[in-house]
Amino acid sequence: MTTTSAPSATQSPAARTTNPLLTPYALPALTLPNRVVMAPMTRMRADRDAVPTALMATYYAQRAGAGLIVSEGISPSPTGQQYLTQPGLYTDEQVDAWRQVTDAVHAAGGRMFAQVMHAGRNSHPANRHDGGVPLAPSAVARTHLVHTLDGKVAPVAPRAMTRAEVRAAVTEHADAAAAAIRAGFDGVEIHGANSYLPHQFLADGTNLRTDEYGGGTTGRIRFAVEVVEAVADAVGAERVGLRISPGNTEGEMVERDPATVYRALLAAIDPLGLAYLHLTDNPVYPALADLRPRWSGTLVGNTGEHEETTPESAARLVEEGRGDLVSVGRPFISTPDAVERLAAGIPWTPIGEREFHYTSGPRGYVDYPRSIGTPTLPTGASTSEENKG
Fold first, then answer.
1. pLDDT averaged over consecutive 10-residue blocks of the chain (389 residues)?
2. pLDDT at 359 (0 to 100)
3. Which pLDDT score, from 0 to 100, does residue 386 have?
4. I want to staple 65 with a disulfide (CB 3.0 to 4.6 A). Which of 167, 263, 285, 339 is the partner?
5. For the chain, what is the largest distance between any 2 Cα atoms, rounded to a whole number of angstroms?
């Protein structure tokens, strides 16, 4: 495992002033030029068939200076879809369109993992092409309103998954991972955090099952472990990351004893030799402190769920050994050249118009200016309204 320690008193002044974020890092199957990971962020620019657009190729290529880009959450199936304009990886058309995105990122010198994200109970019939009722570990409904293209609507109670549907969801993750590699991604990140399906199985508030996928700790981690193993079998463990957010209450999640559950999860998957573990910290459960010593592979640390990520806080996370890499989310929305600015000592741009985070079109998406160099646009890409999803 590659680790980064705090500078020692014997280091030269030049070494002590080197930004640790700008040093290279070797994953099992990919070498990164720096330690800044662009975190996955929902942006809703696919079309209504969940097909990525040319505008998305522009967006990601503009941010290719990141050591690694992790895509927005991509649905592995119509069943896993959360929003109509969330991209998918379950049709040939979607795979071909993602190839245009990954080609643009690679042409700009970048590296990119696809995040596979199954919505579970977070879905809604109005947000699914098949109009189906959401599936979840148990029939535990959310209470918060759900975003649709027609405005906010009341949530729909999910239906508890049968054993066959649980196993189908495992297969869907593996199939989407294989599709991602065909689409040119360098690897795959499984979204097991922030209230999505694997998290719903892990959390006692959403998993009331009494079969082999519920009950105690062994049952609650089973789905996540099976997904990780299936994806690793499909594309190679060295190209697989897992994101988790122990104790995170986003999406009305409840976890009464996250330490016990996540320690068991890490013990089960650590021997697989994954590309990385992507771990989100929070004040309820200091996961980075508790789980860092229990993980022998690469750890991507994230603190953006509960505090603003700054260049200084990101560098401290790596300097203090809480992560080998650090993922940065919102700053990449408004600062496409975030890493280049770190090297030049130029501040990140504050986000301007937040209301354009989840709309269609280029505004608030590809129109933030760079301070270093010129925007990287793939051949044929456009910032016109013609690319609206």
1. 35 54 97 98 92 97 98 97 95 98 98 98 93 97 91 95 98 98 98 98 98 98 98 98 96 96 98 98 91 97 87 95 96 96 94 76 90 54 34
2. 78
3. 32
4. 339
5. 63
pTM of model > 0.85: yes
CB-based contacts of 246: which residues, under 8 Å, 6+ apart? 255, 258, 259, 261, 262, 279, 280, 282, 285, 287, 291
pLDDT at 358 (0 to 100): 73
Question: At 235, phi and psi to the nearest 5?
Answer: -130, -5
The full 3-state SS of the chain, as one line of letters, equals CCCCCCCCCCCCHHHHCCCHHHCCEECCCCEECCCEEECCCCCCCCCCCCCCCHHHHHHHHHCCCCCEEEEEEEECCHHHCCCCCCCECCCHHHHHHHHHHHHHHHHCCCCEEEEECCCHHHCCHHHCCCCCCCEECCCCCCCCCEEECCEEECCCCCEECCHHHHHHHHHHHHHHHHHHHHCCCCEEEEEECCCCHHHHHHCCCCCCCCCCCCCCHHHHHHHHHHHHHHHHHHHCHHHEEEEECCCCCHHHCCCCCHHHHHHHHHHHHHHHCCCEEEEECCCCCCHHHHHHHHCCCCEEEECCCCCCCCHHHHHHHHHCCCCCEEEECHHHHHCCCHHHHHHHCCCCCCCCCHHHCCCCCCCCCCCCCCCCCCCCCCCCCCCCHHHCC
- The answer to whether residues 157 and 141 touch, using CB atoms and an 8 Å cutoff, is yes
Active site residue 25: no
Phi then psi for residue 71, to 5 deg, are: -65, 165
